[in-house]
């Protein structure tokens, strides 16, 4: 197993993981780097077994899953350097260890619905909540008669939060737009003023003023992250009314890439991702990138509002 690698694709032999391998192979080709395919075999209470060579037997039995994925990656993106391995151990801990040595981890996901939401929350959401690198969750594309659909973003859509962040998600989106020479949309979901005034005698500002203010903020954030030189990016700030998951999923096309930031705070570590990311992971029609944001100190966190009934939706 190499010490460092650009893209890691976790596979299990399903159609979902095959879609992830194809996406990862194309992404690796664009980056001009290497792809590492891994299948994790979780051996529960393996230390209690007395069968000799048990670990080797497990690895040999599941090696065809990795070999198939390697062949698919090479067929999808000829010329890409692909390696693979079967790893034994707890799934989440092993993936987290890999994320500390990778630039990107790619996983497949199941379809939509309540069952899909439960499955997403079991492994993928926990990995996205704690991974040290961006995690890409790729949906299985609908059957179009094409054996190998082209995995290249039509556009990159970045969900922009209204809380202090390190801007890692937006920067990742800019880098992906540059890498694939595609347009970039910076989107903030909005549905009213950010709270009620402290004094009852003070009338709340007109919603239109806040909407313009939000659009200016998104435009400024976008300008701060765009490169000053090199290939120009066609970028558009968007402020749209509605709940974040619905707004972002509605904007996205199956050939897009949706980028969201996983925000972490100094006083707690989330067990899984938040509601917006969780909903987007099983609602969005396109691959979803969850990018870890640096820890926000308590003094920099968003202050509590007087009323949240008409507040800005945060991610």
Q: Any idea of the CATH topology of the largest domain? A: Rossmann fold
* Rg, Å, rounded: 21 Å
What string gives the helices and strands in order? EHEHEHEHEEHEHEHEHE
Distance between the terminal alpha carbons, to the nearest Å? Answer: 36 Å
Strand order of the largest sheet: 3-2-1-4-5-10-9-6-7-8
Proportion of residues in β-strands: 15-25%
Q: Any low-confidence stretches, pLDDT <50, length ≥5?
A: 111-121, 194-198, 300-315
Provide mean pLDDT, rounded.
Answer: 79
**Given this structure, which CATH class of the largest domain is correct?**
Alpha Beta
Task: Provide the helix percentage.
Answer: 25-40%
Number of strands: 10
What's the name of the CATH homologous superfamily of the largest domain? HUPs
Largest sheet: 10 strands, mixed
Q: What is the architecture of the largest domain at the second tier of CATH?
A: 3-Layer(aba) Sandwich
Question: What can you see in these coordinates?
Answer:
- By secondary structure, the chain is α/β, with parallel strands linked by helices.
- It has 2 domains: 5-138, Rossmann fold, CATH 3.40.50; 156-300, Rossmann fold (3-Layer(aba) Sandwich), CATH 3.40.50.
- It has 8 helices and 10 strands.
- Strands 3-2-1-4-5-10-9-6-7-8 form a 10-stranded mixed beta sheet, sandwiched between helices.
Strand and helix map with partners:
Elements: E1 5-10, H1 15-31, E2 34-41, H2 54-76, E3 81-88, H3 91-99, E4 102-108, H4 114-130, E5 135-138, E6 156-159, H5 168-180, E7 184-190, H6 207-225, E8 235-241, H7 244-251, E9 257-265, H8 275-283, E10 288-296
Parallel strand pairs: 1-2, 1-4, 2-3, 4-5, 6-7, 6-9, 7-8, 9-10
Antiparallel strand pairs: 5-10
Helix pairs in contact: 1-2, 3-4, 4-8, 7-8
